[in-house]
Amino acid sequence: MASLELIDVRKTYGSGHTEVVALDHATLTVGDDEIVALVGPSGSGKTTLLSIAGGLLSPTSGQVRVGGEDITRYTNRQRTRFRRRRVGFVFQQVNLVPFLTARENLLVMPRIAGRRDRAVLERADRLLAELGLTEQAHQLPATLSGGERQRVAIGRALMNEPALILVDEPTSALDTRLGEQVMQLIVDEVTSRHTAAVIVTHDPRMARFAHRRVEIVDGHLHAPAPA
Ligand SMILES: Nc1ncnc2c1ncn2[C@@H]1O[C@H](COP(=O)(O)OP(=O)(O)O)[C@@H](O)[C@H]1O
Ligand SMILES: [Mg+2]
To answer: With a 6 A CB cut-off, is 217 part of the ligand 1 pocket?
Structure first.
């Protein structure tokens, strides 16, 4: 079953003569086990598409389904609940809780959901190890490098075992040799738990882990011509 379906999605910001059409006639299906690389110039609508797919924004028109769940007409409150349950976001701007350690940042979402069991702690420690962060587990974000902070954000996104992983230009996570390992971790998550992922990146080292490439120009999606 498809994990993400965008059907004829349109998104406009503002109104009247200041209206901006950020997405138009956007139709995209990302299956379970599938990683799509979304590429396009700045301002083409990439972040808007991820925000709609992950329930941060509602579309102006069209339909959005994640794991069979139709989120198109969800209220703000329903979308918040949906995101916590099903979506792992990694944004370019990493928003870690500054007064919590790396490990505690991974445990924030499970704790909000009332989970304090051993399995949650084990998952956090396993993800930290796979992300090369075991030694940094008890450090505060301010004492971590940019790449380390971004890896913590990836760990946090994977903690709740999302149905959909959305990654928006995580450049500094790949500054290090660990970059490949981080992508491999996402690949393993996607294949072992039948997750769908959309990754916005211009970095070929990252894009080559994707199964398919989709281009976006001026809010319109295009499948690239076969090579
Ligand atoms: N909150 C907003 N209000 C008004 N216009 C916006 C807003 N967010 C994005 N836009 C506009 O929508 C278009 C697509 O933006 P965005 O999705 O951020 O593109 P990308 O991520 O590809 O750079 C751009 O023209 C941008 O200026
Ligand atoms: Mg963007």
So the answer is: no
